[in-house]
Give the backbone structure.
Amino acid sequence: MKASSFLHFARFGLRTILLRRQDPILGTIILTDKCNLHCKHCSVNNITAVIHPYRQVIGEMRQLYEMGVRILFFCGGETFLWADSGRTLRDLVIEAKRMGFLIVNVVTNGTFPLDLPEADLILLSLDGDRERHNAIRGDTYDLIFHNIRRAPADNICFYMAINQINKDAIREVCLAARDTEHVRAVSFNFHTPYPDTEDLALSREEKAACCQVIAQMMKEGAPVFNLKSAFPCLIENRFPTPCHQCVVMENGRLSTCGRCIEVPGLCERCGYFFVAEYTLLFRGNPRVMLDMLRTYLRYI
Ligand code: SF4
Ligand code: SF4
């Protein structure tokens, strides 16, 4: 991370903590909900299958920038399916950088060529070893690793949503993150139980066991892009929600924290690690602050 970006985030953090502000710093733009996969745990693919046009996306980027957002995520559906009049996802990333966003990340299922060296991080969903990943995401494991091998930059971070199917494959994903060229780290979430995927949710005891494995893997040197200091709150779902520093834009509609904010009762069972990490940070939790400093400087 550049020193100027670090100073911007440090100033933002201090202002938010000391003045109890609720301004956003992290914004996500949903480019489309169209997706080539139908993962078992997913409740958001192909509802409209509309690919939002370039001008609209650029307008949404400007709006977020003017609100103070400086960390931008492009998300789907599948982001690499986005295209408009010859423009591709890569053009959006380049434009976002030009506009002044300090960190620009992309979330993908990894089934398309990962030709995106301009992105700070490509968050690529890997949901276990071959067997468990394919059980959740269809037969995509080998294609994903083929694409990773051919990636032009070392900016890939695995993204694993832990659920009933893959909860015993955390170690395998940590080792893959450590040993695969072009992969920088792995970032975890627990499954957030939308009404149609309740059966995949983990109990408190299962979450505690998963956090123990992640912590052990961290100790053994696996590159985990999460904050251990937030684990106790994640296990108990004892963190403030929603996260006011995060906003999501979908088809011109702005939501605080996530689209899921509209699902009754979901925030109390939220499994997104970033929500716990950010809300604890901006409440001024000193352990989380130190942990975040160490972790973010290492992986971004
Ligand atoms: S790749 Fe993402 S958007 Fe597509 S079905 Fe899977 S989880 Fe849903
Ligand atoms: S479930 Fe609630 S707290 Fe979690 S990401 Fe969605 S809106 Fe945020």
About this structure: The chain has a mean pLDDT of 96.
